[in-house]
Input
Amino acid sequence: MVSTSSTTAMTLTADELKADLTLEQLQQLVGLVEYDEDGDVFPVTGWDAIVFVVGNATQTAHYYQSAWGMELVAYSGPENGNRDHKAFVLRSGSIRFVVQGAVDPDSTLADHHRRHGDGVVDIALEVPDVDRCVEQARKVGATVLVEPEIHTDEFGSVRIAAIATYGETRHTLVQRVVDGVPYAGPYLPGYVAKSSTRVRPVNQPKRIFQALDHIVGNVELGHMDEWVDFYNRVMGFVNMAEFIGDDIATDYSALMSKVVANGNHRVKFPLNEPAIAKKKSQIDEYLEFYRGAGAQHLAVATNDILASVDALRDNGVEFLDTPDSYYEDPELRARIGNVRVPIEELQKRGILVDRDEDGYLLQIFTKPLGDRPTVFFELIERHGSLGFGKGNFKALFEAIEREQDKRGNL
Ligand SMILES: [Fe+2]
Output
């Protein structure tokens, strides 16, 4: 088999090239780094697709186009022989979402949706060598859900397998170059190219986000280290610098979090578990309504968070509120230093700031996307910082408490 990957991973993927992204942009957007792929037990190139199961894929696909500016690129459904479900493939920049919903009432997707509601069923990863990954996964005792298999249509072949991760979530592993030939279809065999008649509003940015930065997994109390170990041992992921200590997390945000990343840092997984606090943890609420562990939020990367937030608000997307006290707080202003826009512009939009030794980041969180208080999105604009905004847990809660104190209620 001819391998097209080199030892250094500082090359763009086919999807990134298609999205006209440059290496510099990706280094800034998602913190891409160089690494030696040959020494990796489980080389991962990057995200392949994020697969959602939803109650109504037809309307959810419309939502991601009309509200999030994504582009419909492929489809599978009864019209082309898939009588079980409909699946819409949407793109923004280098990232692909696949939205699936049951057509046949007996589809396993209907059961999945009844248990979990709208959510992420599959974090599919592109790998240069599926068989090498599955061999490694099996060697260290991971659950192989689907053995490596070739799928072929008129556009070529892909080789696919799947392994289990937390809850009922899986990682499908997709090898898009087989025997030196890249697959040329719109997504995977079984899908046809499809576009929509929707017209982008003239004042809306070409893309509201360019890439995917990280996906957070919520796991049950006491299981975070087990899943950190899973990503270390099975997939060769490395621990990232940000580890939230008990001191910060338990008092303010009622969660514990550790972050793992693949060699080139395209794929980053913060893993949360609930912490015992004065109030019920937001992680406990997720676990109750999702019926177990699952993907909590997807952070999409933008190079202009102000324009992105403006477009999203115009399109009706709702964000979490940030109290004015957060911006007026002298401690916050001292901590964040100079950022690229006046703080008033951030305050107007509720955008948060965090800074570490490498730089700063701007971020904002949406309200839950579906009916259950489970999965939501984050927008992130990085300026050197490789963190995830841990300073904001503390700053937000402290700002609120100072206000409470002024009112004599603390
Ligand atoms: Fe995040």
Residues 214, 216, 297, 299, 378, 388 surround fe (ii) ion (CB under 6 Å). The longest helix spans residues 390-406. The longest strand covers residues 144-153.
